[in-house]
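Subject: WSCD1 protein structure
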Amino acid sequence: MARTFFRLEKFLRRTQFLLFFLTAAYLMAGSLLLLQRSRLVIQQGPRGTAANQALPVPERMAGVGIMDPQMLQNPSPRLLVGMDAMQEPALDQWHSPRWLVSRNSELRQLRRRWFHRFISDQEPVQTAGWKAMKHTTEHKGTYVGCFSDEERERTLKGAVFYDLRKMTVSHCQEACAERAYSYAGLAYGAECYCGNTLPATSSKPEECNSECRGEKGSACGGINRLSVYRVGARPRRSVIYRGCFRAPENLTDTFPASLIQPNLTVEMCSEFCSKKEFPLAVIPGQECYCGFPTRRFPLHKGADRQLCSGTQGRYCLVYQTPVQDTRCTDRKFLTTKSKGFVALSSFPGAGNTWARHLIEHATGYYTGSYYFDGALYNKGFKGEKDHWRSRRTICVKTHESGKTEIEMFDSAILLIRNPFKSLMAEFNRKYAGHLGYATDRNWKSKEWPEFVKSYASWWASHVLDWLKYGKRLLIIHYEDLKQNLVPRLREMVEFLNMTVTEDRLLCVENNRDGNFKRSGAKQKDFEPFTQEMKDLINRYILTVDEALRGRNFTGLPREYVPR
């Protein structure tokens, strides 16, 4: 009897171990199968899947993706991971109280997922044969040929544009013609370059085999190859007056090009400098010089315009031409993984995207993001599609707060903006995207008071959490960055352990706005905050100011002071 019981006990022990082993093996096999399937989907994306095509997602995952499927027009259990998935919801959807979910829940809906990587920046879409690609007369410009496009020796450098989803030959031609350039060149299926001089080295026609992202069957260059068109330049846009400045001691050493002509006018000088592809037209007396902002001529200390009315040439009038300053537009991923994991943290609406623009152009490296924003990716922020933990980017955008999310990073640049301005900017973004303004109807709706009540506390808790859990912080105030861009940007670059030249920083300052200024009708003297809202926000301002000073940081700027 004892032996029988012993055998039974031994059998049960073996069975328990066997069941445990089989369960573990089953879970591992399922995980490997899921990863293998997802890898196949990702690899097939650039070659066999259009940028705006939906990728299938298992039904059990439909609720944890980038967007809530109920917000999509198509109620099927598929999750759009292309650019279309990032569009703003319809206006009537915001009038439901369901949209005002907790801040962390809303951010999780935007969180990056590993399966969103449907486009490869390393491999432009290519067709099986170059003969299928079109260089036809359907386009307004005249096709010149396929040319080599080495970044260090780039000829078409008057202006650079990106459209990583909808680039077409006509779009590039119109952009270059509008800025009065003679040639338009397309590369990598999504990049557009403008200039007045043809590239020196021609290539074989079949090497321009990248299909335009927004025009099937049309060639948009290739890898280090440009499809070049001659375009009909339109009349130049008006130049922008930059001010009166003291002229440098040696004009010819400071400025690469010059023109001396009787009866010189601003239009003549601007036209000359634009053709020479310089962003500045400088007029001391009756002479014309072209160049860039440099250490010798930084454009930081303006003078009274009356000083420029003389003919001695000690002071000069400076105008901005339509030409883009391209000395700082080249960007790439880090060649080796960064040792430090740095966050670029801010409350939504505090200028994080603008700060990324400045950092990328100053350092020459892409910034990453904890989320995936198709609109930003389409504007040239290629780090949007890179996994946020890849460490191939110089820093990572995040709006997250909380102990766990903060302690993932080794250090952080904490960007703080006036909460009144931040709340309005974020409300504008929710209703009109990154570059638009909310309407009167939006501001007068019941959603605005609810938005302020919920988001004002988040503005304070975001700063307080980073002060409490952040390991190494650099505090940057948005208003200070706008007013003192070069010194604050230099401070940010040094915090990132990067070294850049003064001329590159001046180039960034010359391109400071990028493509991120809001457009549309802006309301003048508009005050959306009630006195109750102001009292609430003012209490948060005082709390954050006290916390900053308690950590030996500079307090909030004076303009934050309670109204």
